[in-house]
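Please annotate the following for my students:
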Amino acid sequence: MLANKLKEEENISISMKVAGFISLICERISMTMIIIMLFIVWGQVFLRYINIGFPWAEEVCRYMMVWLGMIGATILVIEEGHIQISFLLDKFNYRIQVILKIIVHIITFWTIYHIVQYGINYAVSGSRMILASLPITRFWPNLAIPVGGLLILFNLAILIWRDLKILLNRQTGFNGKEEK
């Protein structure tokens, strides 16, 4: 997805290349996790027919979904794929649109920063609790929040930097739009 956009773009910054590489890794991890979850769930369904089951299957899938959500959010941030109400934004000229995007990215950055702060405390507090059906602490599943949040912060910083460069230099945007 983003990797394809990056290949097409000739004059791309190093930060966007790094973001594209991280996005590619996140996509591969997500696909792998979905395949693993698929086999776990299929195995669980099959084994229940013969009155056997994995006691850990539900818990593993639940925590893998949390990791998938955070990794998926990371991918969507750099691709600017999250849901947005753009009909109002489209009414403004390109310069105002970029300014409003920067403001939204800064507010999002501030929010995610606090989520990461509390996520670290949450993960650390789970380091003393053992999961019910797995021999690991809650630290590892809870680590999805700060890890995903840090990746989101990195991507938001890149987007803010890119938009500031566009605003100050009147360059062509990553999506190919030019200021009129």
Remarks:
- Confidence is low (pLDDT under 50) at residues 5-10.
- DSSP finds six helices and no strands in the chain.
- The first helix runs from residue 2 to 8.
